Structures are given as C-alpha cells and as structure tokens.
Amino acid sequence: MFTGIIEALGTVAALEPRGGDLRLKVRAPEMDLGDTRLGDSIAVNGACLTVTELNGDRFGADVSRESLSVTTLGDLKVGDRVNLEQALTLNTRLGGHLVSGHVDGVGELLAMQPDARSTRVQFRAPDALACYIAAKGSITIDGTSLTVNGVDGATFDVNIIPHTWDMTRFSVYRIGSRVNLEVDLVARYLERLVLGERAAQSGQSGGLSEDWLAEQGFPNHTGPRD
What we know:
By secondary structure, the protein is mainly β. The protein folds into two domains: 8-86, Elongation Factor Tu (Ef-tu), domain 3 (Beta Barrel), CATH 2.40.30; 105-186, Elongation Factor Tu (Ef-tu), domain 3 (Beta Barrel), CATH 2.40.30.20. The protein is built from four helices and twelve strands, in the order E-E-E-E-E-H-E-E-E-E-E-E-H-E-H-H. It has helices at 65-70, 162-167, 185-195, 210-215, and strands at residues 8-18, 21-27, 41-44, 47-55, 58-63, 81-86, 105-115, 118-124, 138-141, 144-152, 155-160, 178-183. The strands form two sheets. It has a six-stranded antiparallel β-barrel with strand order 1-2-5-4-3-6. A hairpin with a 2-residue loop joins strand 3 (41-44) and strand 4 (47-55). The relative contact order is 0.16.
C-alpha cells in the first residue's frame, strides 16, 4: 500500500528486455534506500513493483508483460524522470489516500492552463473508469494522490499547486501525455458489493447497468425532476 505522496523523482538508468518482459533500473539519489531490501515494493509512476536488485542509489525491478500492457511503463526511455514512493509502514503519515499501486488504466492529458499560482490540468480517462471518478473524490495520476475538481463524462480535471508541480512529473507533461490512473479503492469495491450475488456470475467483471439498478429498486435520477 502507498499514500500517493511522491517521495522523490528518479531517473530511468536502464531498460533491459528479459524474454518478453523488462528489467527496469532506476537511479534514485534523492530517496533513502538505506532500509530497502530485496522483495520490498516501490511504486514507479504509480505502478507497484518489487525490488529485485539494489546497488547504491539504484534499484532494479522486473516489469511483467501484464504491467507493460496496462501501464505506461513500456513507454519509458533511458533518462526519463519517474515518480517514486516506497510502501507505507504502520508509522507512516497517510497524507494522501490509500493507494494500492495497481494501475486501473491509462489516461491522456488534454489541456493545461494557469489558475492563479496553480495549474489546472485536464485528463481523459478510459470510458470504463468514468463511473469511479467523482468530483472532490480522490484519484492517483502516475502515483500522485490528487483531488478531482470536476468531471464531465470521462473527462476530469485536477489542480496542481507549485510544490506538486516541482516535486513530481507534472513539469514534464505535455498535451497528449499518457499517464497511469488508479481510481479510489472505495469506489472500486463498492461496485462489487452492490452487485452482491450477481458478482459471482460469469461476465460480471465490472459495470452496473441502469436497467439492473432499476430492477434492484435504485431511483433513476437521469430523467427530468419535479
């Protein structure tokens, strides 16, 4: 588990193909690896990876084909900056929100504009994730815990203060940049709980239809109101 509070920016030192997947090596001089051990977890751009190699201020982690297919880790190049966070402990301050490091999908940056001293950034999420994104709810973007300002369909925006801009990858983003998204844990599991016994049926990997909700007695607020 993580908090979504980025500890440091690292630099991709090497990308080594390994029989269809990848060994990622990261140089992290700004992060304390003194008590890190092989087998520990480090989130790299929001994706939880297992440390398989340690060498001074560098660590290595294997990236599976599954991770390469559902995250942006396969887009990385040597020299790229990456957001880093070590797994939380029982005495860690939970300054962001509970983050699993399991990326739900890849989003696209649509727009950036100044907002006083901050920057308003707009993203498009995959359609399948839109139902989990709510105004004033939490979302993780490349491992950074953020509050959703507004939502319009699968599009949402967040406000980036100067500190977050300087301490994370936001300063290198451009229009069209792809980012790892992790939705709020509560929203993800609430859907499965609402499904109840239906969750055990084949083909119910996610998604609540309006018809099913109506059958269960949930009010329909999509139509006109009195």
